[in-house]
Amino acid sequence: MTSESVAYNDMDLYVPEENLEAVSQVASELGTIGTTDHVIEELKNYYQENYPYTVRPGKTPKKKDFVNYFLLENKKGYCSYFASAAVLIFRYMGIPARYVEGYAIDYDQILSGELVDGADYADYYDGYSEIGETAYVKVDVTDADAHAWVEVYDPVIGWYPVDVTPSSSDDEDITNFWDEFADFMGGDESGSDTVTENGNALTIPDNLMRNIVYGLAVIAAGFVVFLLGKQFVLWMLFYIRFAKASYNDKLILYYSRMVKRYEKRHTEFATCKNYENQIQYMLTHMAQGEARTELEPQAGTVIEILISRASRISPWKKQPIKKTQDPRNRDGKYFMEAPDVVEYKGEYYLFYSLSFLSSVAVAKAKKPEGPFEYYGLVHHKDGRTLGEGEDKHPFDPAVFIDDDGEIYLYSGSAPLERTIRDNLAPRS
Predict the structure, then answer these.
(1) Cα–Cα distance measured from residue 186 to residue 27, given in angstroms and rounded to the nearest whole number
(2) CB burial class (10 A; 0-12, 13-18, 19+) of residue 281?
(3) What does the angle CA 406 – CA 410 – CA 412 come to, to the nearest 5 degrees?
């Protein structure tokens, strides 16, 4: 045992001012202050009798102190709740204390563990132990073994662990509708185990209440989907895509979403002609509390990624469409003009035109690099082939999909081969 292991300082007796009222109220209910062991035992009993253990205590309301809400209002929780409050109560009563998190294992886990041969006790443990030196056993622990407790200081033995978390009963889980509803919704716990009607207590079965809660939740979720409709689905798809994206892709997705927001809310944003100007405009006009702290440090990175992606065109991989697949080009006499590829619902569509043919064709593939197979021709809504009946043919198609899933097709246009031939024919 070293001097460092037993030393304590003023912070081990510090109680924040905002917690003094709640802590003093509980401390006064523990009775006459006695020895450290007496105070510990009194607090354990007080917790056991007045604060039930539960793994679902609900969320602490915003702007409320975690310890104060636990001690004076919610009065239920799990190990970290009990340990956090106990540290401040012990300190208030003059006992140096500190909060500890780690893993707690039981006797059965030790019996099923693996004995570590040749382990030196002093290499693994330094300080007071109630059971003295023992052999070392290797035990596998999981998150289920996570625990929080208190360490208090004794002038003779130094710091030693104290577990004030009360034992849980078989019915420690939520036992009534209002607790179930509050926990399900992540709000405050309030209400009682019964509903009063005409002066009589009407007990409602817990299973029925639980089913009602789940049913209401499903109905509410369906109602939200109905109200938000297409926008809700697009929002969900964006966040699913965001969750699966790489770090660089996340930056670009975040930047794109910010651009769309500012285009709607700021008409002068359209005057920003490059990435740097756009980001600077966002940072300048961000209100306090917006994501300025997220965007500003990454501004240079975002610009660099955007520029690099705009110029990145390697590595090349040739995956031609077989000439025999397009029925208009079985003999291979026509050449393809500047195709464009777009991804839609997990498949990739290549839009292309053939020289001097008045149409735009589409080929489809499972991967962006192909291989592509002929799919068909682009048509108008009335069934006419794009370019049909016109004296010009579309070429160099380009495709764009906006955030709403709308697909836009752009192309150039040029005179048909016969038009050129007629214009060049000698006149009599």
Answers:
(1) 30
(2) middle
(3) 175
In the structure encoding, which two tokens stand for residue 333, read together? 């006499």
Q: What six digits make up the tokens of 221?
A: 């979720």
Q: What is the b/e burial string over 251-274, where b = at least 16 CB atoms within 10 angstroms of the residue's CB?
A: beebbeebbeebeeeeeebeebee
pTM over 0.85: no
**Which residues face 154 on adjacent strands?**
158
DSSP character at residue 348? E
Q: Residue 286: which H helix or E strand, with range?
A: none
Report CA dihedral (413, 419, 425, 428) to the nearest 10 degrees: -130
Q: Are 251 and 298 in contact (CB under 8 A)?
A: yes
The answer to whether the beta carbons of residues 75 and 40 sit under 8 Å apart is: no
Are 118 and 180 spatial neighbours (Cβ–Cβ below 8 Å)?
no
> Letter for the amino acid at 269?
F
Q: How many CA atoms lie within 13 A of 146 on its CB side?
A: 7
DSSP one-letter code for 266:
-
Hey, what amino acid is at 267? Answer: T
- In our burial notation (b when 16+ CB lie closer than 10 A, e otherwise), range 3-34 reads eeebebeeebbebeeebeebbeebbeebeeee
pLDDT digits (tens, 9 = 90+) for 138-196: 888 888 888 999 999 988 888 999 999 998 765 544 444 445 445 544 444 443 333 33
